[in-house]
Amino acid sequence: ATVGKEAADVVRRRTESHKKAPRDPEESLVKTHAFTGLTRAVAMDCEMVGVGPDGEDSILARVSIVNLFGKLIYDRFVKPTEPVTDYRTAVSGVRPEDIRDGEEMKTVQKEVGEILEGRILVGHAVLFLDHPKKKIRDTQKYKPFRQTVKVRSWSSS
Question: CA 145, CA 133: separation in Å to the nearest integer?
Answer without folding.
Answer: 15
